[in-house]
Amino acid sequence: MQIKKGIEKIPGGMMVVPLFLGTLTNTLWPGVDKFYPGFTGNFLVGTSVILFMFFFSVGTTIDLKSTGYIAKKGLSLLIVKVLLAGLLGVIINHFLPRHGVTTGLFAGFSVLAVIASFNETNGGLYMALMTTLNRDEDAAGFPFISIESGPFMTMVTMGVAGIAQFPWQALVSTLIPFAIGITLGSLDHSFRKMFKPVVPAMVPFFAFTLGYSLNFGMIFKSGFMGIFMGVIVVLVSGSVLALVDRFFTGSDGVAGWAASSTAGAAVAVPYAIAETNPSFASTAASATAIVATSVLVTSILTPIVTMYMEKRARRRGLPIVPKKYEGKFAESIMAKKEEEEIKAKDEAKLAAKGD
């Protein structure tokens, strides 16, 4: 049976299919992790452990010589997405009251829902997409993107001053597996060869646990507005970030589309904001439902759009990295070319059998 090939025919299939199955599992049987404790239950809620191993493995593949380009890539995606969320918030704030829209098709639409949905990128999804595409140079920008996680950036974007300290512990915690992986991979290249194949193999496990943290009931609770928010996050932030990635970093824009998602951590942001600023208390519940749906919608839509844009970029011959950095990323570029050649040969064989 060609199950793997069948899954890979779906754009971002190795991420999307397990994600869908995890969400379906939690929707139909939300307490299964408690019903089956031990290995199975711990796996279902063990996203953090899987991500530690995932990020460590990615770290071993990173070449420290490419730090300048990686910082440019990661910081540009971070800054532009935060500025975009802030700009949208300022515009919407001029037209809507603090409590947002309370009735009709756009019920729940508020400044809090918009900024929380746009402000945080699903770093794990970004990493999974970039490593699936053998784009280690883009995946390495994750530590910068991770700065968005949690309510801090949303508070800064909304101009709530002096109510939260920078969560440096969380940021350092995110960097630890990377740092260990980078150190070992740099000191001994055999670690790089050992753990590089682990990266794509971990994607389905991470995707399933992420899916299990969601459920399809979120879509019905937030209604049209939640789905609309998720689609807009992908289209608007993806378009803007892709332009930045192309014309500022000199890449092909694919990383920008991979960053066009809402992080799972964003679901907790509306209530965190409401606790520190009671004027947002009336919109916290509706904003949470909308953000949760945006997480689910973007988790499915972002991989599909990213894979499409990747194929489109390869057809157009756009560079993965600028020419002046190609020497530093030669290994990853060659791996990408080899993968494309293998896929082309497999497709030719299948076509020949069909004839």
Structure write-up:
The chain has 355 residues and is mainly α. Helices cover 72% and strands 0% of the residues. It has 19 helices and no strands. Helix 6 runs antiparallel to helix 7 and helix 12 crosses helix 13. About 2% of the residues have low confidence.
The low-confidence parts are 160-166
SSE order in H/E notation? HHHHHHHHHHHHHHHHHHH
Gyration radius, rounded: 20 Å
Percent helix, as a range, is: over 70%
Biggest sheet record? none
| Ends apart, CA distance between termini | 20 Å
Please, what is the oligomeric state? single chain
Strand-pairing-aware structural class: mainly alpha
**Overall number of strands:** 0
- What is the beta-strand fraction? under 5%
Mean pLDDT: 78
How many DSSP H or I helices? 19
Taken from the alpha-carbon principal axes, the silhouette is globular
List keywords for this structure.
single chain; 355 residues; mainly alpha; 19 helices; 72% helix; globular; transport; transmembrane; 2keto-3dGluconate_permease; cell membrane; transmembrane helix
